[in-house]
## 1
Amino acid sequence: MTLLYTGQGFWDPIAWLFGTAFASILVYWIWSKGRGDYKKGTEQVKPFLCGNPEPGKSEIHVRASNIYWGFVEALKGYYEPLIGMHTGELSDYVGWFIGGLALLTFVILVV
Amino acid sequence: MPFVVVGVMLALGLYAILFSKNLIKIAIGLSIVESAVNLFLITLGYVKGAVAPIYTMAPAGKKMVLPTPQALTLTAIVIGLATTAMLLSLIVMAYKHYGTLDIRELRRLRG
Amino acid sequence: MEHLPILVVAVPLFVAFAIPLIDKVGGGRYAKEGVTVGSLLFSLIGMILLLKRVAALGPQVYVFGAALPTLTLPTGMKVPIRIMFEVDGMSAFMALSGSIAALAAAIYSIAYLKDETGKDRFYVLFLLLVVGMLGMELTGDIFNFFVFLEISSIASAALVAFRYYKAESIEAAIKYMVVGSLSALFVLIAVGFLYGKYDALNFAAIAKRMEFSWADKIALALLVVSLALKCGAVPLHMWLPDAYAEAPASVTALLVSVSQASLYGLFRVCFSLFGVKMSTLTVGWIVIIFGVLSMFIGVTMALVQKEIKRLMAFHAISQTGYMLLGVGVGLAVLGNPFDLKSYGLMAMKGGIFHIINHAMYKGLLFLTAGAVFYRAGTRDLNKLGGLAHNMPWTTVYFIIGAAAIAGLPPFNGFASKLMIYESVYKFNPILSIMAMIVSVLTLASFVKIFQSAFLGPQLPEYKDIKEAPMSMLVGMGILAFVVVFFGLFPELIVRTIVDPAAKALVDQASYISKVMGGM
């Protein structure tokens, strides 16, 4: 009922769920072996930043523009023409359509 | 011959959409393309020497044209009217927001 | 029961035009919402019954104005002269997926649009959009297809401009309107070519006499490009992020399914109208190239977006690429029965399964984005943060949707992507590897949304926001339930609805013979 043939192999979500549940129990068991004798409510549970005071909430949140900055910077040669392609100008939108139409008509007529 | 007219009108309309920078002119170009398509459809239904397909009034022995292309054209005209009205009303609102009809200015959405 | 194909379209159409009247007469505060949801529920139930009927009895036809709804060829006629609906496994599958999304979006709208004006017109257009979508998927007549295409494109342009007080909505609507109606006109030219050659407008009648001469080739090119534009394949996708991002969220969730109706049109044209008479390898490769470009450019553009709905819209393009890839591989090997049997059909099943999965999880994601916008008042990812503290349910729904789109087990996206990878690998390993890379990048960009909007410390400006209202949670809940259910029982879904859909596409002969009689 849940065993799906996917061309080369099989996929069974229920069996996967059982496996995941087993792994979670194992992880929980290992975690529960950890030390429980730290002092709650003292400095032991606070982040330690080399003695500096903790910055405010909005300063420590990583904003969207900073995520994958390195990835985009490394692929600059790919991204700059790609973003330049999306001009937002209506005649370019139509131009791509007409150009694609001409190219495809040619391809289908010739081949 | 009518097919040449269709081709010329189609080219003119596409030229207007592709190369004019004014939204009203683009709307006019769209209407010209629409008329070209309507002309194309109505030309397809033309049979030389045939009469209108009114069964009770047609003289005996004469060929009757199939009314389907005319029905298609009527439908296409009605749809074209709706499209043009909708587009023009959107253009009015765009003018209120942007203060211009130049499509080079209407590109806040890009990238 | 034999009137079902028309009823699922006619009831929402009737209700759409009744809504202004109901609103004038009064009839309670939630009257228009009630009748909208009621008619969509009716359509959904009708579609389920119709799907069962198609599974049991084969393709169903409904002829308008005939003495009998199943009388396709009046005596003495060689071609069908009446407009008809023809519902086979694929049509019923698409319409089912569309009506689930429509119902969820309508329920979501009740609370989402509470403070907006012009709600009666909103529901009229919303139902017309559903009618256009269902009509495109059920019709068996190519001109009728064009009419429903125009209904849906006019209604959706109007709905994109629903927030007319925002300049961006108007801008997006204008772009969508011009590009959409231009492509629809090219569909009409193609209809003209086919009609001029075969004197028929019925898919089956044209397909039976298809010769694939130069006029047919031009018609094929026009149809493929126009419909690829309407479903947002790269490089014809430019209108899509604009329109999807600026429409109200409930409309965007429905627009995903409406674009898929154009995708359905593309497949119907390729498989049922032209079929093996055309050079399937060429057209198959064209579809595959569209698919690969869409997958890759869509996802890489999504990675750099800063606005939550625009980012998701680029993902919609990228996921459409998977469907084009899967079904394109099936199309490329259509002329080769051995390859078709060994992997082509499986690739098609994967692509088709992905259609319904995508309609569900992408609808869900757009609805969660709408919930974020409704409460936080911004869609800018740079301003959002820490919403999981205040909106736990929305967060859970978002996680379900994001895991499904990224293809994490056990959600539904995983099953269909696995089917696509494994079968496409046999056709061309490079395509399969690209699909996997795209999947990784998809996960990466959803981690970006999750981190920047939901995780992080509770920001001071969002301290007091509340969970989304009830009707929005219900709307999202329906889609989330479907996503999880499809993920847990993929075999059941593939066997009952996906497999008949893929077989219906391949089996051109029975599609024709249902209308034209014995071959």
## 2
Amino acid sequence: MSAITVDLRRNRLMLSYLIVAVLLVLLAVAGGFLSDRFLTWRNIGNLFQQLIVLGMVSLGQTFVVLMGGIDLAIGSLVGALTVFLANFLEWRPDLVWLALPLALVVATAVGALNGLLTVVLRVHPLIVTLGMSSIIFGGTLMYRKEPGGSVPRAFADIAYAKVGGIPLSAIVLVVIFALAGLWLQRTRTGRSIYFVGGDREAARLNGLPVDRIVVLAYALSGLCAGIAAIFLTARTGVGDPRIGAALTLQSVTPVVVGGTILAGGRGGVLGTFLGVLLVTMLNSLLNFVNVSSYYQWVIQGLIIIIAVGIHTTRRR
Amino acid sequence: MMVPLDTPMPRSQSISMASVFERYGLMIFLVVLMTVAALASPTFLRPANLVNVLTIAAPLGMVVVGQTFVILVRGLDLSVASLMATVAVLATAFKATTNEAIPMIFIAAIALSAVVGLVNGWLVAKRNVSPFLATLAMMIILQGIRFAYTGGAPISTLPPGMGFLASGRIFGVPVNLITLAFLAIAFGIVLHRSRLGREIFMVGSNPKAAFLNGVAPDRVVILCYVICSVCAGIGGLFLLGYVGTVSNWVGQGYELDSIVAAVMGGVALTGGRGNIFAALLGVAVLVVINNLVLLLGFPIEMQLIIKGVIIIGAAAFYRTRLA
């Protein structure tokens, strides 16, 4: 009986991957018809260059959602880190080797703090991370209200660097997603994230260190936000406290589109990766055919509803 | 007052210090805050400042009345702020310069809000979409439609009467505060004294039991989302009159603030527990804190930090209360 359920679940996930993959192909074909510049290597290269920021924050969100939580502090954290990086590097451009690890450590620590607060206070993650988002954003604004700072040339280059013609950021993204997927599937700790997300009480009764796994998921989300912030700062060259404002909600879309269930325990990073591709490609295509960004919002909202409508099954 | 009619009394009926603190904690907190504010700045207790604070609080209060309904049925409405701005844009779309248009504006605004609430509720109750995602999607969709209409530019064609509704006074009492009082009392009666109200609490605390008791949970949930959106729509009109121009972002931040206020007022995010008037007390605490930050001369960003600390703290406080 349980074997059948597991099989069905896997098929359901495979089905959502398949749907997203088919949509991707359809989009690419449609793009090729609508504009002869859409399917050029140049545009595809650009597209891959843009993937890293949305990709990383969505990956972080995937860890947390799989574990049964949600992280609404991602955007504020990314904004704060860009401010930190740009201002630190303006002050000491020679200390890139120190600034980057420092940003990652701070990001991971803030993520872990999110997790700790949900565990210790046992407050709904929505509230904890919304509150933390407000605190981080307020703190960043008290330090810098306007975009500012600068980055050394060598650092800015990592946003546009290419290895064998392929953007470095795309390679980093694929490698990290692959590692994340392997970790979630093949390791004990990785799998326990699914377990905690599926049924926290059962996980606890099975002797899993539930609290530690929760904190770990949020810490990973913070780390991902840190990586996103590094590439974002390299690309824009400034620190902008508001730059992440839209990222929080954007990070949820690919996760949901990829078939990961918001209640936790079901889904995977492959779906998120396809979701990121789909969202980025769709936006790029809409730009190509000159659809105003206002309608892109409408379309993004509809995608969320349709994706959830497809993936959810009725309770009763 | 904090305990809904149908909840069983707590195990221990004796009046302990703890239970008094539980029940009146927020009120005590408000009094302490106001004392601190009065000591810190002589301006605080001036009638002009107090009326000003209340005028600012009223539209938020209207949103909170609605948000309470949705949270009571285990929901959450992130689209309220976007709806407020959309309603504001709709109001200017009449391009009316005389007061005859005001009833039309209100009817149109309420109709639009009801449709938005209906869609939210339908997605949550019938399509089983999580409230977070359904209202999030609605928020973005409304934002897109609004911007597509205005092209991003602010508009300010409004009947002069809208300004009176928002910041006018009758015998020294702000009009919008009177409206809020009517709204709160009317919905308070619905929630705490009517059959529908009991059904809402029942659905919020145990949908299955409610279903077995002959209540249609889906209908109740959809109705709560409609009430929430209508309240937000009305709040949007009053806020619009106060601001005067539509900037496409009227009401920004009200989704978080309304949830903060309701949670501070003891409305449980797990559903089935809460009281409209306690939630409004939460609004009072929030606006007094914001005012205090200004009066003490702290940077305005401090409000964000304090708000964040408070929402986490309040949620933790009420959770321990439940345990």
